[in-house]
Every structure is written in structure tokens, then in C-alpha cells.
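Let's do one together. I've listed all components of the complex below, 361 residues spread over three lines.
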Amino acid sequence: MSYYHEGVDENAFQDNLLAWYRENQRELPWRINQDPYRVWVSEVMLQQTRVETVIPYYERFMEWFPTPEDFAKAEEEKVMKAWEGLGYYSRVRNLHTAVKEVVESYGGKVPDNKKDFSSLKGVGPYTAGAVLSIAYEQPEPAVDGNVMRVLSRVLLVTDDISKGKTRKQFEEVIPTLMGGTPPSEFNQALMELGALVCTPKSPGCLLCPVQSQCEARKQGVQQELPVKGKKKAPALKEMAAIIIKDSKGKFLIHQRGSKGLLARLWEFPNTEAEATSSQKVDLETFLKEEYGVEAAAGDSVQNVQHVFSHLVWDITVYEGTLKNADEIKGNCKWVTMEEARKLAFPVSHQKILKTIEEEEA
DNA sequence: AAGACGGGGTG
DNA sequence: CACCCAGTCTT
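Okay, and this is what the predicted structure of the assembly comes out as:
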């Protein structure tokens, strides 16, 4: 790694950073204490997710599941509902598995050593370092995107931060930079600086407490850092979905499998089908073969465009007429709107749910 | 080492 | 529209 570590005055860096953090840190619900469970939940929610988005989810999660024991015994439906709309749903399935293990194998106490804590589902190098430092005051690095951006500028690191190797190099530099400062404050200060001042587009160098320790600032290249490889464009998937109601006004929904995209979430029956081909016939064949449901696809009533990080769904939604569902199979069920509201749907299918709700109103 | 895995906010 | 966000797991 090419960095100018020897060029940075560590004592001045620590003093300036911590003084700034003590004055400028935000009041956040997971900062009211250092309870390891609360810190852990916040760190998982915050993965790839903005603070403002997380706050309401976090508050509700802590109302529903105040302790590891409460969460461990929760039903899967409620666990998924707690995460509905947050994305990256494997986070909550892994967290549930991990907290159950904490209750069963560690007496409900979150492990305070790296080996045990890191072995839990969904706990990677960042989360391990964050919880051990923030909740247990251990001098572990917690290197996230904010920290890499700040340090790539302060230390003038030009390596690609999307590479795993680069993150490890930053982790090796942290102990020296952290020195004898309180680990919880130091790590959070670095992240807070990245979130509030040392931002991606136009960093607020004039307001920055460590601008005189920043190599990129000295050379005027802060805008060019960090270096990050480009992502490829998401692939397009054309889908057809259908709304089918039975004689009692209940509609048919399906639960996705336990692996892959949107695992364990509920959805309207749908299949990949190019809009140029006959989507209606594809849908009818799919329903009969996969769910044992005979129905006729009628007019299209809605079009849903949904963008994921790696693909785009273009869903044409049809209205269906039920003919026969005596031999229903697959993970399907008929639900009322009230029942559906207790289940977790991906945002793309919440849009379809909304259409039905408006029709019924 | 690269790709899968969500959703929303920003310039 | 492109990029980013308190990353981890699988292949």
C-alpha cells in the first residue's frame, strides 16, 4: 500500500478528531448506552444503509425485541416484517440465527472476544470490530466505507478500496492511529467525520478538524479519492405478475424460497417472461405447473419498474380470473388485505398491494 | 477475486 | 442517471 503514514502527526490527529467528535456527534438512538445487543443490531441495520433510513426501523425493532431473548424467540414472520423495506434481507435472517446462538450457547451475553463473536452468522470483520470497540472498548479496527474514504485522503492512499486487500491494509494502520484513545470514540469519530464532513462528492475541508494532517488536502487531490472500481450496469429482467381473487375476495400470494434474492418474502405469483412474447400464456402455464392453479390472465392493470443493485425488474401486472384451485401446491396461500399486512413484501410487490388496496377502497 | 444481495437519497 | 451508503456470504 502506498501511503504517507509517516507524514501524519498521530497525536495531533487524535486530539483534533476526538475534540471535534465530542462537540459534533449526532444524538442517535443506538448511542444512548453501550449495550452490546443494541450496538450490534444498529451495526447490522447500518450496513449499506443510511442513518436516517435506519432510525425508525431501529426504534421499532427495539420496541418489538428489547433483549436478545425477545428476538431469539420471535416468529420468522415478525422478524421479516421488522426488516420489510430495508433491503439485504439475509442480514436479518443471519442476525436471528446469530442471536439465537447467543441465547443458547452464551447465556444471552454477546461474546466479548473476537473469535467467538466473529464466528456468528452475518458478523464480518467490520461488524466484529465495531461491536468489540463500541460496546466493549477493545482497540479493534472498524473499517467501513466512511473510514476508507477518510483515511484514503488523510494518508493519500491510491489503492482501489473495492479490493479486499485494501481494507485489510487500513485495518493494519488503525492501531497506530488509534493509539491509546478510547476505541469506541475513536472509531465512531472516524465514521462520523466521513458522514458529516469528509463526504464523497465535495468534502468540507474548511470545516475539517484534521485538515492540517490531511495529505490529500495538502496536495489538493481530495476530490479524486478514494479510488474505486466501477460497477457494471444491472441486467434487465422482464416479468409478468398476476392478481387472482377467489370467490371470497382473498387474493393469491406466494412465499419465496430460503435462498437468493428476497428470500422468504411474500409476492404475487410471477414469472420471468419477455414482454414481446405472450406473457399471458406464460403466466397461465406457470400458474398451472408450479401452483396447480387454473386461471385466465386478463388485462394488464399496472407496470412496475424496480431497480436493484445488480438487476432491474420490469413487471407487467395482469388481472386474473380464477377457474380452478382445488389442487393448489407450492408455497402459496389465499389472504385478505388485513392478513397480507402482517407479512413482509419486497417494495416492488408492495406497489402491487397498493393497487389492490385502492381498487377495494 | 468477483458477484449476489435492496432500497433510497443525492448531485 | 451514476454513485453512495456504519458489508457479508457464496462461488
